[in-house]
Structure formats: structure tokens, C-alpha cells
Write a structure and sequence with these properties.
The protein has helices spanning about 1-10, 15-30, 40-45, 50-75, 80-100, 105-110, 115, 120-130, 135-145, 145-165, 165-190, 215-220, 225-235, 240-255, 260-290, 295-315, 320-335, 340-350, 355-370, 375-385, 385-434. By secondary structure, the chain is mostly helical. It has one domain (about 10-190, about 220-434): Growth Hormone, Chain: A.
Length: about 425
């Protein structure tokens, strides 16, 4: 009965979720194509791993610069229309990336694709206004399934379509889909009053009176749990960028995998990775009902277990393909646990009208920290090996993330309680005004 009431109160929740899911799915496929196409692109332009690492680093730097701008825009203007614009930019910049004939132009146009890569804060804050806090971990987990499935889609396009038609044709396809998604979002996704699904504000009218303001943004840096989670984010994306952009080249060059062996190894791992997002989010939601530290506990467990399993995986002998595949799948299950819980934790402690900015600030910190990761891995690989680069960067990063999660757990209960009090005060002031 309760479920029906909530569904009736939030129209378009399901359709909005699915449109955003497919936006992320195709966008992630386009964004992550660079990984499985790395070897082919390097051969086209006759470049080194260091130069190829610079391509990814350039896009990440542009994305980092654009995060604050996107966050500010999302908290002030229509989120669906801005998401539609981001999707159109994705399509056009990907087309430009496919057309260019030389490495310098490819480096520049690939950097341009970073503009739309930083557009997700508005998507997540919009979803927060369609689903209540106690469900957000699971919802974000299911939404983030689009990331590994997009990676899988990109891998299939790269290894099957790209192998026979060339890497440029793959970019033409995904760029065209970006333009189509732009039209779908513009026509069918509607904005919601910010904070409308918060329990304290569910009965409050005229929520639009609470507007973005810089005083509240400055107040973010007084919340100790947020500061610690920002630091965690600075380190936490290093492993993702290294694995995403270098794992295919590692399998081909250092483990001597064929395209078929790569597919047989990566498809199960990516599918299990997809399971890890909603599983981690659901576990975080469940533990959050028992303790406000629940989400960070699940995040800490994920990075700790992931680091241990990755170390074991990378030490598997080169000729033991089966054991390597099994351990890679085991690692893949745990490493996404932190993502939906960190995102939900941001919204557990920040006011609704500045959530896009908060998420953008975190993404800026993450991207600023990890933008050099692909380049760093390329440098280490050119001097040692790609396997050593992946192992060293990932395990050190996750060990540091574990420590940050532990520290965040000390402060997050107070910050959650402070936000709940703020929202209750708003509801009370509205009631008095009536």
C-alpha cells in the first residue's frame, strides 16, 4: 500500500529512471570505447603508451574544469534541458573525434569530449528528487549498472564492429546515438522541485523558494564527513581510470590474449561488476537503516576486499587463463560497492538546492586527482610493465580509500542529523507561514 502511494506521489519516476539509464549506458559505451580501441588507435597514429595516456588525461582535465560549471547550472536551471544539451555535445564532439586525420588533432578533439563527461551531477540530483532517501542507494546502484554494461557494449562494438570496420566507424555510431538521446531527454524528461522526496519536506508546498546560494555552498566545507569523502574521491578514481583505459592493452600485450580470449575473460567480469553496484547500494541502504555509518562501512569493505583480490589476481601465472578469469570476476564484484554509497552519502548531508554543486565539487576533486592516472600508468608501463602499473596504482589507492572511509564514519552521523534538523525547521516555518 505504501509503495502505491509513493508511486502516485512521484509521477514519471520509472520512465525518468529508464531514460537516464539508457543515456548513461550509451554515453559510457562511447566514453569507454577508448580502452578496447587503444591498441588500434595507437597503430593508426604510430604513438607510444605515454602519448596515448595523454589522450585520456586531456579529456579528464577538460571534464574536471567543466564540473563546477555544470553543477552551478544544474542547481539554477532546468536539469532535463541541460542534460539534453550535454547529450548533444557528446554526439557532436565524438563525430569530430572520428574525423580528424592526425594525432595532435585527435588529442585536442578527444579532450573536447570531456565537456559532456562532467554532466552527471544534474542527472543524479534529478533522480534524488524522484526517489526518497531510504531507496537511493539501491536506485543509484541500479542506475550505475549502466556504467559496466556500457563498458561491455563498448567492448563488443570495439572488438567486433571496430575490428572489421575500423575505430572511426564506431565513434560515428555512438556519436549519432548521442544526438538521438538529446532529443529523447528534451521531449520526455521533466524536472522536479528540489527536495520534494525528503520525508521532512514531502508535504511542503512552494519548495522552489529554497534557491541555490553561495553561503550554503561555502557551508559544505564545514562538514567534516564531506571533506573526508572529497579526499577519498581524490584517490578513489585512480584505479578506475587505470583499469578502464589499460586493461585491454594489458591482456593483449602482457598476457598475450587474442580478441576472443579477451572477450571470454572480460564479459563475465563486467557482468559481475554490474551486479556489484546494486548489491553494494542495497547493502548500504540496509545497514543505513540500522546506523548512519552504514553506507561508509559498506564502502570501506568494498575497497579493502577489492584491493586484496586484485593483488591475488595480478599474481596469477600468465598461462593460467581460467584462474585469472575467476579471480578477476571475484575482484569485480566488490570494487563497485563504494560508488552508490558515496553518492547517497553526499545527499544524506547536503541541502537539496545545492546537491548538483556538491556532486560536481566531488567529481571535480575526483577528476583533478585521477586525470593523471592513465598518463602515470603509461609512464610506469614504459619503464617497467603495464601489470606493475595497474597493481601499484590500484592497491595503494584503495588502501588509502579504506582509511578515509573509516574516518568519515566518525563524523557522518552528526552531519546527517544536522541536515535532518535543517529540513524539519524548513517544514515548520512553512507550516507557521500558512
Amino acid at each position: 500500500m505504501e509503495k502505491k502511494v509513493k508511486t502516485a506521489m512521484v509521477p514519471r519516476a520509472r520512465s525518468t529512471f529508464w531514460i537516464m539509464f539508457f543515456f548513461m549506458l550509451i554515453h559510457q559505451a562511447d566514453k569507454l570505447l577508448i580502452g578496447p580501441l587503444t591498441t588500434q588507435i595507437m597503430e593508426t597514429f604510430n604513438i607510444t603508451r605515454t602519448q596515448m595516456g595523454a589522450v585520456t588525461t586531456g579529456a579528464l582535465i577538460v571534464g574536471a574544469i567543466c564540473y563546477p560549471l555544470w553543477g552551478w547550472l544544474y542547481d539554477r536551471y532546468s536539469r532535463p534541458k541541460l542534460l539534453s544539451l550535454a547529450s548533444f555535445i557528446w554526439g557532436t564532439t565524438t563525430w569530430l573525434n572520428a574525423i580528424v586525420p592526425t594525432y595532435p588533432l585527435f588529442l585536442i578533439t578527444r579532450a573536447g569530449t570531456g565537456i559532456d563527461d562532467s554532466s552527471y551531477p544534474g542527472l543524479y540530483s534529478l533522480i534524488a528528487d524522484y526517489f526518497p532517501p531510504q531507496k537511493r542507494g539501491k536506485i543509484y546502484g541500479f542506475l550505475q549498472v549502466a556504467q559496466p554494461l556500457g563498458y561491455l557494449l563498448g567492448m563488443i562494438l570495439a572488438l567486433l564492429w571496430g575490428a572489421s570496420h575500423g575505430w572511426r566507424s564506431v565513434f560515428y555510431l555512438t556519436g549519432s546515438l548521442g544526438v538521438v538521446m538529446s532529443l529523447v531527454i528534451f521531449l520526455f524528461v521533466k524536472d522536479r522541485p528540489r527536495g520534494s522526496t525528503e520525508p521532512e519536506l514531502s508535504s511542503v508546498e512552494h519548495l522552489e523558494k529554497y534557491k541555490f546560494n553561495w553561503k550554503e555552498v561555502k557551508g559544505l566545507f564545514k562538514k567534516k564527513s564531506l571533506i573526508i569523502l572529497f579526499l577519498q574521491g581524490f584517490i578513489g578514481v585512480f584505479p578506475w581510470n587505470v583499469i578502464t583505459y589499460w586493461i585491454f592493452d594489458y591482456l593483449k600485450t602482457e598476457r598475450a590474449y587474442t580478441d576472443q580470449q579477451t572477450m571470454l575473460t572480460m564479459v563475465p567480469a563486467v557482468l559481475i561488476l554490474a551486479v556489484g553496484y546494486p548489491l553494494g547500494g542495497a547493502l548500504g541502504d540496509r545497514l543505513f537503516k540500522k546506523t548512519p555509518k552504514g553506507r561508509v562501512i559498506v564502502g570501506a569493505a568494498g575497497v579493502a576486499i577489492g584491493a586484496i583480490l586484485l593483488w591475488i589476481t595480478m599474481k596469477v601465472p600468465l598461462d593460467n587463463h581460467l584462474l585469472f578469469g575467476i579471480m578477476l570476476c571475484a575482484t569485480a564484484l566488490f570494487i563497485p560497492f563504494a560508488s552508490p554509497n558515496v553518492l547517497s552519502s553526499f545527499y544524506d548531508v547536503t541541502e537539496p538546492e545545492i546537491r548538483s554543486t556538491t556532486n560536481a565539487a566531488q567529481n571535480f576533486v575526483e577528476t583533478a586527482g585521477s586525470a593523471l592516472a592513465p598518463l602515470l600508468a603509461g609512464i610506469i608501463a614504459d619503464r617497467s610493465s603495464l601489470g606493475n602499473a595497474i597493481l601499484l596504482i590500484c592497491t595503494i589507492s584503495w588502501a588509502l580509500c579504506f582509511a578515509f572511509f573509516i574516518f568519515a564514519g566518525k563524523y557522518i552521523p552528526k552531519d546527517i542529523a544536522d541536515l535532518r534538523k535543517t529540513l524539519k525547521d524548513r517544514a515548520a516555518s512553512q507550516a507557521v507561514a500558512k
